[in-house]
Structures are given as C-alpha cells and as structure tokens.
Amino acid sequence: MKVAVFSTKSYDRQFLTDANVDNGHELIFHETLLNPASAALAAGCAAVCIFVNDAATADTLKILAAGGTQLIALRCTGYNNVDLKAAAELGIQVVRVTVYSPYSVAEHAVALLQCLNRKIHRAYNRTRDNNFTLDGLMGVDLHDRTVGIIGTGKIGQIFAKIMAHGFGCRLLGYDLYPNPTFESEMGGKYVTLPELFSQSDVISLHCPLTPENHYLINEAAIAQMKPGVMIINTSRGGLVETQAVIAGLRSKQIGALGLDVYEQESDLFFEDLSSEIMQDDQIDRLLSFPNVIMTGHQAFFTQEAIGTISQTTLASITEFAQGQPLSNEIKPPEKVPAMA
Ligand code: NAD
C-alpha cells in the first residue's frame, strides 16, 4: 500500500524503513508537517502516517479524502490533532499507537522533576565554568512529599509507581476513570481537582488533551495551589495556559516548571531555530526563568519506544491493507463525564 509519511526526521525514516521489511509497503517520506497546504502531497496514497504536530483538521482531511486517503495512522498515542468526527464523516479510519513505552514518558517526567528540584541544569553550567559553589542549588528530599497526578492511565501509573516506590512520596490522583490499582498497589488516593491542587508539592500531568480540559492549569487553578508548587507537563501543551504560568512564576506561586510540551510547539519543536530570531515572546519569557526547564517533546524518544511505534504503525497499516479489523482504531469520542 502507498503510504505518505509526514513530519519525518532521519530517525523516523530509519526505524520505519526497518519495520517495513516485514510489511512491504511503499513509504513516501515527507519532512513537512501535514496541513491544508501540504495535504495534496498525499494524493494517491491510501494511507497517511502522521505525528503529534500534524494538523489533521476537517479542511486537511477533505483534501486527503479527495486524493484517495482512507486511513490516518498516527505514530503517537495522543490524537487531539485529528478531527475524528470529520474523519468519520469522510469515511477515513484513524489508528494510533496505544502502547509503546509508557516508561519513556514517565521516566522523562521524573528526570524533569529531579533536574528542577536539585538544580542540575544550573550545576551543569556552573561546574563547566569551574564554579563549584552551592548557593542557589538547594533542593528538597522528595521522601514524604505529596505528588498530585492528573491522569492515572498507562504513563501516570508508571510515574506513580516510581514516585511512591522509588522516592517514598505520598500520591494524590485525579482521573475521570479512576484505576483501582492506583490506590491498592501504589497507596495513592483519588481526590477532587481542588483537593489535588491545594495539597500537592508536585503536580504532574498525564491525561490527554480534550476540549473539556483545555487550559486545565489556568489562573484559577494556580491560585488554589501550594505556594512554590512544581508543575510538570509531559502530556500536551494545551493543558497549560502559558500566560497564567508565566504570571505564577513571576509571583513565585509556582516554584518550578518542567515542560516537554508547549501550547505553540507546532511552530517550533523538532526544528533547529538556533540561528533565527525567536518570534514567540512567551517561550522566550519562559526560558528566561532559572526555575523552568523545557525539552522539545522528547519524552517518548527512547530506542524502545521508537522501535515499537514504527512496528505498531506499520502493522496497523497492514491490517487495513488486508481488510482486517483494526486493533488500534480510534472512533469519535462519546460524551465524557463532567470534570469534578
Ligand atoms: P492513557 O489513555 O493510558 O491514560 C490517560 C488517562 O487520563 C486515563 O486514565 C484517562 O481516564 C485519564 N483522563 C482522560 N481525560 C481526563 C481528564 N480530563 N482529567 C483527568 N484524567 C483524564 O494514556 P497514556 O498512554 O498514559 O498517555 C497520557 C498522555 O501522555 C497522552 O494522552 C499524551 O497526550 C501524552 N504523551 C506524551 C508523550 C511525549 O512524548 N511527551 C508521549 C506519549 C504520550
């Protein structure tokens, strides 16, 4: 089957080509993002393979459908960038990678957390300049600290296990669909969002971005948090209102912020802009704080995860090509319960 693969980097091409040996599809790689302007590149391809910042909006999907596309294969877990309703109306099926390495993202969240807590980013720069002073580098023991986890699915649970069993933290959780093992195996406790906000020393986001939880972390939420709270977001940028966290950092209500995702990331991430003039003032302001660290959507980026993503994506395309039921299909969402 002819497959147009968008947003590809050298590592995508390498892993997808390796995984395709057993599948035999014709992969046509494009570096560009998928959007209405680039969608015509997929003409004649029954399948289109996309990543986190490709915009499978209704406009884009109409162009894809007109060119013969019948399948969108996301090589990621989150699917907030696909208009599922429009896809269903156009007869386009959508698959994603439901499980690859949840360890990759959970472990990266822990890395951001401890880097911020123990000021590793600042120590790294200092010691390279032969400056071995400790002023400004003091952290806290994580043992007995309270960690609030929003979204206790696959990634949230592994993060919970590391924080509880590795560091001895007290866990609070919030989830629309609570998972019993969070309480029975990890000693966590489900609470309401206001309770989680007001009691947590660290808040880590592990829920998908949906229309209902856009800007979950906004001015009102930040006002309920403990002064000096640390916020970690490895989920999706749109969960956090950037302007509100900048205000929270300035007032010191937020003590530290670790981001692997950013609400305007589609214009920036995965590109080398080091010789360009940054046009996004918010990211410049965020990166000027000594207590903010940002990585460019790399939480998933381990050998294990990329290998599994590539194999699962191509296996889904093969299922489609052979007319089999799609194991990893996503349907338009049914109405979600109201958030507490
Ligand atoms: P999952 O589906 O296993 O778990 C998500 C959990 O969030 C579920 O328990 C669900 O009930 C809960 N949830 C849904 N809506 C919620 C809401 N409004 N409030 C609270 N909880 C809610 O997904 P996962 O594999 O654990 O992945 C979680 C998220 O991590 C993904 O949606 C994606 O956005 C993000 N992610 C990021 C990267 C990265 O590289 N940074 C990689 C993979 C996934």
Task: Give an overview in words.
The protein has 340 residues and is of the alpha/beta class. The chain folds into 2 domains: 2-100 and 303-321, NAD(P)-binding Rossmann-like Domain (Rossmann fold, 3-Layer(aba) Sandwich), CATH 3.40.50.720; 102-294, NAD(P)-binding Rossmann-like Domain (Rossmann fold). The protein is 35% helix and 14% strand. It has 12 helices and 12 strands. It has helices spanning 10-20, 58-66, 84-89, 102-117, 120-128, 154-166, 180-184, 193-199, 219-224, 242-250, 281-288, 303-321; strands at residues 2-5, 26-29, 47-50, 71-74, 93-95, 146-150, 170-174, 189-190, 202-205, 229-233, 254-259, 292-294. The strands form 2 sheets. A 7-stranded parallel β-sheet has the order 8-7-6-9-10-11-12, sandwiched between helices. The protein has a 5-stranded parallel β-sheet with strand order 2-1-3-4-5. Helix 10 (242-250) links the parallel strand 10 (229-233) and strand 11. Helix 1 (10-20) crosses helix 12 (303-321) and helix 4 crosses helix 6 (154-166). The chain is globular and about 60 Å long. Mean pLDDT is 95; it is low at 336-340. The protein binds nicotinamide-adenine-dinucleotide (NAD). Nicotinamide-adenine-dinucleotide (NAD) binds next to helix 4 and helix 6.
